Amino acid sequence: MTAPSEAREDVISIRSGDGAATLELMPIGNGVARGFLRFSPRGMRLSVTAARELSDALHRRGFSKILVGDSKKTLLKRALAPLGWRVEKAIPTDTGRRCTPATVFDIPLDGNLVDLNGAKVEMAGAGQMSGIRVDFDGRRGWAFYAEEETVARVISEPGRKQGFLAVQSAEDMFEVADLLVRHLAAQGKTIAVFTLDYGRFIRKFEPVMMWRMGLDSPKGYDHSAKPLDSSNKSMATRLFAEYYDESTVQAMLRLRKYRTDKNYSTFLVDGGFVITRLEGDVGLVYDIYVTPSKQGSGLGEELMRCALTSLSGRVSSVYLHTSYPRAKRMYEKFGFAVTYSQLGIWLYETSLTPPTAK
Question: Residue 25 belongs to a domain with what CATH number?
């Protein structure tokens, strides 16, 4: 077992027994950092010595709080809580005031409601959305969102309405936004997506920037990745279980889905995979992953070369989504540019506070 290393990108690397994990830290202001955790194998546990070395490495960074998506088996909580770290949900689920389910049809037509800009709420195109009603002292507020599995979207743009906030008094917008986020966390949603203009109302939840990046006319490169077949199926299953933090059976079912849908293509190297998807004349880099023990060895760029090669000559453009600054820089090396940005709140995050933090 080796001690955590402090890499240029501020990535803490941990080895414990046959397992490996990386925790990339990104400062987000006021002594707070966001951590991006990767680990292998899925059921990895840190030894007492490795846990203490991780704790020491985090202490040296000097953050008063770290927000991170822990593993489903609470890898970080099991390692750090016995060492005095306070480990708790980053998003509280209590709503305090009375908060009740609502539909857009519950909104009174004469409610004199305003949106986040203080303008009269535009109801056209609202459609079927889930929502809540918030009762204040003699006033009410509403928040609506569109659902897609575990993702909730509050997006109100010209020609695209997937949620909105409405209040009778502009001063209530902050609390309605606060209660909506808590409500979504209590409902088991994993991500809440907002347009950038909602940023000032959700700042307290430390949202991440979500980038859509695009590239026109992808070209081909030399690469060593191999398409998914019977010879590397077992490796793909293991890597899927790691990346998606799911059981082997769930990973096999996911793999079967991608193999049977001809729009998906999966390619592998020893220690990583990339999945692409065809959407008519446009390609999507659906997912890309490098196992922790191989990170920093150039496999990410190798997989990206493969992805672009597989799409070259078949699509007019390629796009992808990311919230990882380090990954964004890699994509920019290949010519990708940001075409659209949104804010995301990771509702599943854990808050880590060191024992000495006040």
Answer: 3.40.630
